[in-house]
Design goal:
Helix content is 46%, strand content 17%. The chain has a 6-stranded mixed sheet with strand order 1-11-10-9-12-13, with helices on both faces. The protein has a 5-stranded mixed sheet with strand order 4-3-2-5-8. Helix 1 runs antiparallel to helix 9. The radius of gyration is 30 Å and the shape is globular. InterPro entries: ATPase_NBD (IPR043129), Hexokinase (IPR001312), Hexokinase_BS (IPR019807), Hexokinase_C (IPR022673), Hexokinase_N (IPR022672).
Length: 506
């Protein structure tokens, strides 16, 4: 081969190599462009989902005022006992709330789940208030939750009797007086007097034959008799009414109590002559505590999204407790999970594969949501660690973490603002939403109990700010929202005291 041929071949080979390099460069450039386009499309889809959530979860003040008006309307329907009214507005038969003058030894039994508490308190009147209190918590054996009524109440009465036997010298029962008990029973009950009520249905994992339709106070009283325990049930209450009683004992200006925990409910003090369905003699106090059961509030004004609708449809009680499903601790984390699942499916928020754990119902609890929401680190490392621990995502992008934070913010803010609208509705029903005719305003206190309000600080701060916005600065300056711990326990004992058989009748 001649020199020219060799050179020619080299030129051809060089050209081919250059062409190959050129093709590779073009191919790499195309891949990069496709990746950029795919990433841009992914971001566009994520932005579209977030924009839709922002719109659906929006709660402008005008909407909240409309929800409050709807709450007042449903309260009035419930007080008239209209058929199909979502708010039952149950008459608690509590017409005397604690005043601070109560004296003596009183017990409480708080039954609301798989544990119950027994409490005793020595009250010393206005000067000494609560002199001493003690309590014990008891777990209910699982087999008793599905056994017979007699077995369950005998177990409870036996534990109560053991607790009474440990009564020390700091507690004093005057000679000739019977011990009295406040019974917090946090299951659906049709109350017929301050110390009687028939069970409507068991919930929270209980399934006991022979109790539905029976008077739960009579069941407990018979069990105490079988244990040789001389004790009278002076008051049957639910936890919200107990919280109101405990709140009123601590502060005489408390007019309503709200539970914001795993579930939600509210109770307030109503004028007895404003209860059309009340058929008995008007109480001497002129007032009656109403247990609203407000978790079942529903209105077409509530901003239900596709996530709320699917949650409700897949729940154990579709069509019920709509308000509760939008504002309470049982459901906020689940709503966040559903939005993140949509982002994972539509916008590959956590990578090309949807994390399998993200498909699991209720895997994201509200306390975890709260912990993520309160992450103040610059790179949201704590939020990222939660996503790894809970959803099994080994590595999340900073963008995914900030989107998750924003979703938590949207869900918590909506829940808090809707809860504030409900409280505003109660204050409006009571005429506490405006100045008096002389432009003054009496101090008004809202007592709130529950882990959601107590521990989820961004939720509680948003609720309080929203209530101020709805009331206006001038009226809001005289409305106090305060934490009321352990209402269902101490409150029941206080109601036993204020409805004692030995109480002086005014």
């Amino acid at each position: 081969m001649g020199k020219g041929a060799v050179v020619g071949t080299a030129v051809v080979v060089g050209a081919a190599a250059a062409a190959a390099v050129g093709v590779a460069v073009v191919s790499l450039s195309r891949r990069r462009r496709r990746r950029r386009e795919a990433e841009d499309e992914r971001k566009r889809k994520a932005a579209a989902v977030i924009e839709e959530v922002e719109q659906r979860f929006s709660t402008p003040t005008a909407l909240l005022r409309g929800i409050a008006d709807a709450m007042v309307e449903e309260m009035e329907r419930g007080l008239r006992a209209e058929p199909h009214a979502p708010l039952k507005m149950l008459i608690s038969y509590v017409d005397n709330l604690p005043t601070g003058d109560e004296q003596g030894l009183f017990y409480a039994l708080d039954l609301g789940g798989t544990n119950f508490r027994v409490i005793r308190v020595q009250l010393g009147g206005r000067d000494k208030r609560v002199v001493k209190q003690q309590y014990e918590e008891v777990s209910i054996p699982p087999h008793l939750m599905v056994g017979t009524s007699t077995e369950l109440f005998d177990f409870i009465a036996a534990e109560l009797e053991k607790f009474v036997r440990t009564e020390g010298e700091d507690f004093h029962l005057p000679n000739g007086k019977q011990r009295e008990l406040g019974f917090t029973f946090s299951f659906p009950v049709h109350q017929t007097s301050i110390s009687s009520g028939t069970l409507i249905k068991w919930t929270k994992g209980f399934s006991i034959n022979g109790t539905v339709g029976e008077d739960v106070v009579a069941e407990l009283s018979r069990a105490m008799e079988r244990q040789g325990l001389d004790m009278k049930v002076a008051a049957l209450v639910n936890d919200t009414v107990g919280t109101l009683a405990g709140g009123r004992y601590a502060d005489n200006d408390v007019v309503t109590a709200v539970i914001l925990g795993t579930g939600t409910n509210a109770a307030y003090v109503e004028h007895a002559n404003a209860i059309p369905k009340w058929t008995g003699l008007l109480p001497r106090s002129g007032n009656m505590v109403i247990n609203m059961e407000w978790g079942n509030f529903r209105s077409d004004k509530l901003p239900m999204s596709e996530y709320d609708k699917s949650l409700d449809f897949e729940s154990l009680n579709p069509g019920e407790q709509i308000y509760e499903k939008m504002i309470s601790g049982m459901y906020l984390g689940e709503i966040v999970r559903r939005i993140l699942l949509k982002l994972a499916h539509d916008a590959s928020l956590f990578g090309d594969v949807v994390p399998p754990k993200l498909e699991q119902l209720f895997i994201l609890r509200t306390p975890d949501m709260s912990a993520m929401h309160h992450d103040t680190s610059h790179d949201l490392k704590h939020l990222g660690a939660k996503l790894k621990d809970i959803l099994g995502v080994p590595d999340t992008s900073l963008e995914a973490r900030y989107i998750t934070l924003h979703v938590c913010d949207l869900v918590a803010e909506r829940g808090a603002r809707l809860a504030a609208a409900g409280i505003y509705g109660i204050l409006k029903k009571l005429g506490k939403d405006k100045l008096l005719s002389d432009f003054s305003q009496q101090r008004t206190v809202v007592a709130i109990d529950g882990g959601l309000y107590e521990h989820y600080k961004k939720f509680s701060a948003c609720l309080e700010a929203t209530l101020t916005d709805l009331l206006g600065e001038e009226v809001a300056s005289s409305v106090v929202v305060k934490l009321a711990n352990d209402g269902s326990g101490i409150g029941a004992a206080l109601l036993a005291a204020s409805h004692s058989q030995y109480a002086e009748v005014a």
